[in-house]
Amino acid sequence: MTDEATQTARQQAATGPAVLRRMNAAAVLAALRAGGPQAARVADLAAATGLSRPAVTRALAALSEAGLVVTTDAGEGSAAGTAGKLGRPAQHVRFRAEYGHVVGVDVGPHKVLAVLADLAGRTLATSQLTVPAQVDGPRLFEIVRAALTAVAERAATAPERLLAVSVGTPGVVPPDSDTVRVAPSIPGWAGLPVVPRLRDWLNCPVTIDNDVDLAVLGEQWRGEAAADRSLVFVQWGERIGTGLVLDGRPHRGATGAAGELGFVDLLTDPDAVVDLPLAERLPDGLGPFEHLAGAAAIRRLARAAGVPLGPDGDTAPLFEAAARGDAAALAVVDRVAARFARGLAVLLLLLDPDRVVIGGGLSRAGETLLGPVRAHLHRHTLVDTEVAASTLGDRAVAVGAVRRALDLVEPRLTAALG
């Protein structure tokens, strides 16, 4: 066969009836998934996809044969039934969210949280494991494996049957990379082939992303910021990281290092000579701003002021005392808020976002902490920006990882059509 004939055959194969039917089925599947767990009528799907009713019907037959959709009773799972209506009831179909499972994993220096969801994004099981002090990369990887095994068992499945896994981690993750480039808080984690090892074990798509970038995705998906075109999300706890959304799209920077608020240095003498790179000046892995306003700094200020803390340095008693009007506690909280506002103001002056969402452990302090933060921000910025606590709390990273994993599933579902 000549090269021209070969090319013509390939073009015909790529545009033939089988390919068209597969494209139509994929379009109907996407419309069903976009509608969530609710059932839909053929007419609804035709309107959503622009396909004819016969084309939608043929697509649904292919999807049903692949096990991806199921016919339901009229109105089952839909917004409105057909009770009281005359004539033949409309056929309703729904996407089988139970077809498979995905997992989002939040990896940190203190805990690993795995959340298993069905293909509609509904959480079915969770597993949280404590990370011991002084953990290194290889040991942390084994904890991730244990969390994945445990969460799969709780959902009565096996890790090898998962359809996709997404991992959120501290540190810098270059775009489309399989490894973490910089992870100051976890020795031996940077450069570890986490994704290839998990992919070989699970035999499914696996990605790894910066944890706060995934938290932003979670806020846009399940939080209060879905309508915002620009968003600053700050994970405030032991570490301080920032995820950014600009013009409706996540912004990660050229190397994936955008939003590292924790490494902003507000203290160094500008005339001082510093020979070492920033990453080599951080023996404990914490950045300059984290030393200034992170949870460890708050504990130091509280102890210096004689304000009691909880077991293992829990800061909740500090904020409870401030809420009761304790003068010493109020002074500590105000000082922390002032420090935090100075760093955050830099981002707000540069980006002018619609909203700031505060997540992480310190967000649980609520208005006791955020009220003073707003007051200090007012002194450092030109316009006031809405500042609110995350409604997802410490699950934001894992929720965003689930959303990312769901995106990875699409090619596998399409491949099931044959």
Helix content: 40-55%
How many structural domains? 3
End-to-end distance, in Å? 27 Å
CATH class of the largest domain: Alpha Beta
Q: What class do helices, strands and sheet pairing give?
A: alpha/beta
For the record, the CATH architecture of the largest domain stands as 2-Layer Sandwich
Radius of gyration: 25 Å
According to CATH, the fold-level topology of the largest domain is: Nucleotidyltransferase, domain 5
Count of DSSP helices?
Answer: 13
Number of strands: 13
Uncertain residue ranges: 1-14, 75-87
CATH superfamily of the largest domain: ATPase, nucleotide binding domain
Order of strands across the main sheet: 6-5-4-7-8
**Major sheet, described briefly?**
5 strands, mixed
Give the helices and strands as they follow along the chain: HHEHHEEEEEHEHEHEEEHHHHEHEH
From the spread of the alpha carbons, the general shape counts as: globular
Average pLDDT figure = 85
Strand content: 15-25%
Description of the structure:
A hairpin with a 2-residue loop joins strand 10 (240-246) and strand 11 (249-251). A 5-stranded mixed sheet has the order 6-5-4-7-8. The chain has a 5-stranded mixed sheet with strand order 11-10-9-12-13, sandwiched between helices. The protein starts with a helix and ends with a helix. With 418 residues, it is of the alpha/beta class. Residues 1-14 and 75-87 have low confidence and may be disordered. It has 13 helices and 13 strands. It has 3 domains: 3-95, Winged helix-like DNA-binding domain superfamily/Winged helix DNA-binding domain (Arc Repressor Mutant, subunit A); 99-215 and 397-415, Nucleotidyltransferase, domain 5 (2-Layer Sandwich), CATH 3.30.420; 224-391, ATPase, nucleotide binding domain (Nucleotidyltransferase, domain 5, 2-Layer Sandwich), CATH 3.30.420.40. It has helices at residues 3-15, 17-34, 42-49, 53-65, 137-154, 194-202, 211-222, 288-293, 295-304, 316-323, 327-351, 367-380, 396-415, and strands spanning 40-41, 69-72, 92-95, 101-107, 111-118, 123-130, 164-169, 206-210, 231-236, 240-246, 249-251, 355-359, 386-389. It is globular.
